[in-house]
Amino acid sequence: MRIKTYVTNPAEIERDWWVVDAKGQTLGRLASKIAPILRGKHKPNFAPNLDVGDYVIVINADRIHVTGNKLEDKLYHRHSGYPGGLRSTSLRVMLEKHPERVIQLAVRGMLPKNSLGRKMLKKLKVYAGEQHPHQAQKPKTLEL
How far apart are CA 42 and CA 88, in angstroms? Predict the structure, then answer.
């Protein structure tokens, strides 16, 4: 008797669309719930070498909550590539200017650091307000 191992085929992957309301949610806890959904770990046909995850739409990104002094102490760094080109931005400034990027960067840090992780991150759609242009996909609400 032979037991055959099931291998997920990229052609049989079905993707759902989920809507997450970030209003009042803590940043890190929200990101740690979104990352496994993008990766597909909640599905029975999960494969670590394939992108089997679902699409996630995050609304109200400008209304997230953080604990402690993170609004002032948490810094986002970027470098221009030139000597002395390091630029830092606090979480408070980032939330005022680009609230979508805060959630994207938090989720990005929880995904694989390779081309597969970058492919998974493209399925994350973040919007600062209530409205999103993905009504045609009939997204389901995800309660966290």
Answer: 36
Cα distance between residue 59 and residue 132, in whole Å:
7
Evaluate whether 135 touches 57 at the Cβ level (below 8 Å).
Answer: no
DSSP state of 139: P
How many of the other CB atoms lie within 10 Å of CB of 127?
A: 19
Q: For residue 24, give the CATH number of its domain.
A: 3.90.1180.10
In a domain, 77, yes or no: no
Q: What is the pLDDT of residues 20-53, one digit of tens each?
A: 999 999 999 999 999 999 999 999 999 999 999 9
Give the pTM.
0.92
How is 24-42 classified by DSSP, letter by letter?
T-BHHHHHHHHHHHHHTTT
Report the residue count for the chain.
144
Residue 60 forms part of a structural domain = yes
Neighbours of 23 (CB within 10 A): 13
Tokens for 22? 């970030």
Q: Is residue 124 a part of any domain in this protein? A: yes
